[in-house]
Write a sequence for this structure.
């Protein structure tokens, strides 16, 4: 295991001031990220659908559209249905919103930008995330609308099915590294792409897939967006919500998207380390420690954003599953797979504690995984540029559609 | 919210055999006999994202299971048939546009053909070709909307916008010919209102060349998507005998494997000279007559429509006559009664027109495919999951403007 660089607090200030500063920075950052994602999702979906998306508000490509929408939602009338359970109806959006933001407190951005590093970060984050579901169920119940109730019940149904495979999938990196701290798990992956946990052994490779699918369900993203499935349940659990309360649910979802993306990066995709081991080298050079922290945070954000983009990509490509199919998938496919993975990772650690065989496996998996992703990207670019010549790559349809606008005229 | 008596009377009108429905409900309830569950009545519509307008379906549900789905119609009733009794024949054409507003051309055509048969008018050959071109183009446009919204019903947003992108080009072509993009009134009694503009046929060929490869894209993106198949295969199965018994028509009937198409069965206009196939459901992904089959019949029909339009464009050069028959100033068909049905994108659209010898019809009655096809919802959407209801309604592809008229 690579030795951890010394952990020092970011700023040396009196504790209360430091706390306020940290909270302000984090809340600001998460809010900006959530608003950016809302705008970004609209742009991504628009370009996949041969539209432009928001173009007016703020000038450049409608960059302040989310801001304007937020202001609009803030100024809207505060509606509570007559038959609703008023206290619960009011409290539900915060129960969804607060956990999504609170989880960021323990999310490390790089070795130095880890504001709170407790030894059980992984457990803490998933505990906090599970609380979000309470807000959703409560909101659906308190609305006293049948559609909302359906949304809430589906969420309840979904959480019991995805939480177990998700938890077991998260345990595999924990088992491999031997720590429940996200900082430790990430530091263990420094020094090159072959050390990333997703490429460490075949079981972790599969485990990453299980984690990603289950995390989509955890975040109510397509194809698992059943609690709010628009075409069936009108808007699911937030049918009766409007104004700022609705915005809270919305914010929570987009903040959680970043959280899920960040967790995927930290647990499986090398955390804040680049594929070539440069950041690790910088961390061990005393004069470059702060640059390493900054570069690491940047790399982490890029990785998290990439995962968020994949979530958006899936949402605008796939139809929605049915509730029985979600349960089937989580309980009968992902759960056994996750169990086998956990067992496999344990056996792997016992059989190959290190050495040449381990390295060879890592390199093969890196070639498969990273090479596959690279080839995918190459096909994508190729399809985009040669589209007009009758080349169709069906998997990439939404992307290649970027060119339709000009073509059709 | 729900008027119980109303739901009971409507249900007894539509369900052919109430005993059957009760038996299935008992079976469904028997599975979880140890858990006490309460049935819930859910009002889906008339304002609901996936009821395609103002359809109201009252669902009797047990958790996620739908035990019974009763469609209620009438929220868009505009007395179109009564209006028909007060207008001259050609004046009723714009009202037909507003019935099935996604297939205005076909609706115009059905009424025009009925009146022409009643009045014994001969339509010039060129006008017949133009009519077929526009009817088939509108069929493509209508099926595109159907396909796109079907994806939407199942949670796939993107195909919807692709479909609309292509439909927009068809509407551009229609606009070039008649100035309207939705309610055309282009096909009229005796022919079409204007001849097609210069260069229109070339633009049409250009569109067909552009459009044909797009069908493959829809298949890649939606038709053969694993989740899409999971959601539609073996869902809402209509066996052929039930389809015939309910008087279904159009892609809903053909989806059940019954090769019945009025364009082949009664080849009016110039359909007899066209080489095309009647597409039927073959049960490729599940049972014959499931939602996927009905959906895919529409995709295949788009291809066939492209073929028909291409043949028309090839042949129209040699067609005799102008775009409209010689017509009397005021059309007064001899007293009598006639029915004429054509193959609309949704099925058999027929008009019964009764004349008493004056300039105004005595009675106009429309036989709408959406209305007749919708009736089977009650039988098909029992004992399914809540998420299957939009899938089934979408695959029947109703246009409420025509259901209620």
């Amino acid at each position: 295991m690579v030795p951890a660089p010394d952990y020092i607090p970011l700023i040396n200030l009196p504790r209360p001031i430091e706390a306020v500063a940290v909270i302000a920075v984090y809340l600001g950052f998460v809010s900006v990220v959530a608003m950016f994602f809302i705008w970004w999702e609209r742009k991504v979906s628009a370009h996949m659908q041969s539209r432009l998306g928001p173009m007016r508000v703020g000038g450049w490509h409608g960059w302040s559209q989310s801001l304007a929408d937020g202001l609009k939602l803030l100024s809207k009338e505060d509606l509570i249905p007559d038959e609703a359970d008023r206290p619960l109806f009011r409290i539900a959006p915060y129960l969804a919103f607060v956990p999504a933001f609170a989880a960021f407190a323990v999310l490390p951005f790089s070795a130095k930008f880890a504001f709170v590093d407790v030894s059980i970060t992984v457990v803490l984050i998933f505990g906090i995330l599970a609380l979000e579901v309470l807000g959703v169920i409560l909101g659906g119940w308190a609305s006293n609308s049948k559609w909302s109730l359906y949304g809430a019940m589906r969420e309840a149904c979904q959480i019991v099915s995805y939480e177990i495979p998700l938890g077991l999938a998260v345990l595999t990196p924990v088992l491999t590294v031997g720590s429940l701290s996200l900082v430790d798990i990430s530091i263990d992956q420094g020094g090159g792409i072959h050390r990333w946990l997703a490429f460490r052994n075949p079981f972790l490779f599969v485990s990453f897939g299980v984690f990603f699918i289950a995390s989509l369900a955890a975040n109510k993203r397509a194809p698992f967006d059943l609690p709010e499935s628009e075409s069936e349940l009108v808007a699911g659990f937030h049918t009766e919500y409007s104004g700022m309360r609705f915005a809270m649910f919305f914010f929570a979802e987009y903040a959680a998207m970043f959280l899920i993306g960040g967790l995927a990066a930290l647990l499986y995709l090398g955390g804040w380390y680049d594929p070539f081991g440069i950041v690790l080298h910088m961390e061990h050079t005393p004069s470059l420690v702060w640059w390493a922290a900054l570069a690491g945070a940047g790399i982490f954000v890029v990785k998290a954003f990439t995962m968020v983009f994949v979530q958006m990509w899936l949402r605008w490509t796939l139809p929605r599953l049915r509730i029985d199919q979600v349960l089937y998938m989580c309980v009968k496919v992902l759960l056994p797979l996750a169990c086998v993975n956990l067992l496999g990772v344990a056996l792997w650690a016992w059989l190959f504690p290190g050495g040449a065989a381990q390295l060879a496996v890592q390199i093969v998996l890196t070639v498969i995984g990273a090479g596959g992703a690279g080839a995918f990207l190459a096909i994508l670019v190729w399809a985009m540029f040669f589209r007009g010549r009758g080349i169709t790559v069906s998997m990439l349809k939404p992307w290649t559609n970027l060119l339709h606008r000009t073509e059709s005229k | 919210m729900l008027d119980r008596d109303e739901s009971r009377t409507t249900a007894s009108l539509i369900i052919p055999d109430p005993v059957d429905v009760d038996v299935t409900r008992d079976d469904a309830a028997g599975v979880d006999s140890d858990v006490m569950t309460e049935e819930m009545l859910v009002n889906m519509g008339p304002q609901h994202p996936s009821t395609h307008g103002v359809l109201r379906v009252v669902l009797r549900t047990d958790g996620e299971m739908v035990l019974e789905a009763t469609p209620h119609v009438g929220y868009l009733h505009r007395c179109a048939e009564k209006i028909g009794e007060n207008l001259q024949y050609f004046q009723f054409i714009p009202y037909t546009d507003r019935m099935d507003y996604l297939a205005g051309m076909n609706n115009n055509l059905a009424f025009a053909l009925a009146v022409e048969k009643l009045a014994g008018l001969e339509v010039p050959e060129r006008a017949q070709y133009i009519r077929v071109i526009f009817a088939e183009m509108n069929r493509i446009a209508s099926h595109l909307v159907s396909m796109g919204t079907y994806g939407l019903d199942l949670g796939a947003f993107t195909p919807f916008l692709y479909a609309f992108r292509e439909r927009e080009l068809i509407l551009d072509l229609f606009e070039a010919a008649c100035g309207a993009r939705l309610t055309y009134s282009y096909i009229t009694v005796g022919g079409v209102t204007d001849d097609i503009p210069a260069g229109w046929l070339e633009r049409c060929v250009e569109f067909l060349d552009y459009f044909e490869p797009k069908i493959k894209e829809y298949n890649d993106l939606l038709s053969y998507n694993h989740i899409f198949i999971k959601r539609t295969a073996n869902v809402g199965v209509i066996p052929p005998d039930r389809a015939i018994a309910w008087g279904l028509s159009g892609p809903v009937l053909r989806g059940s494997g019954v090769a019945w198409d009025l364009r082949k069965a009664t080849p009016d206009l110039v359909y007899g000279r066209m080489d095309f196939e009647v597409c039927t459901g073959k049960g490729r992904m599940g049972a014959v007559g499931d939602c996927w089959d009905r959906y895919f019949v529409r995709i295949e029909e788009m291809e066939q429509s492209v073929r028909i339009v291409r043949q028309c464009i090839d042949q129209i050069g040699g067609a005799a006559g102008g775009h409209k028959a010689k017509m009397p100033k005021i059309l007064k068909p001899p007293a009598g009664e006639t029915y004429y049905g054509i193959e609309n994108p949704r099925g058999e659209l027929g008009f019964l027109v009764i004349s008493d010898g004056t300039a105004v019809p005595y009675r106009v009655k429309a036989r709408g495919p959406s209305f007749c096809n919708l009736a089977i919802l009650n039988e098909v959407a029992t004992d399914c999951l809540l998420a299957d209801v939009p899938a089934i309604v979408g695959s029947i592809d109703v246009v409420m403007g025509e259901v209620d008229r």
